[in-house]
Amino acid sequence: MFNSTDFYQLSYQQQADVLLSDATFLLSRIEDSFIVDLYELDHLLVEVFYQKENEDLVSVMAYNSSEKLRALTNGANLKPRLTFKQGGSPYSSHAEFYA
Question: What is the per-residue DSSP string for 19-68?
Answer without folding.
Answer: HHHH-EEEEEEEETTEEEEEEEETTEEEEEEEETTT--EEEEEEEEHHHH
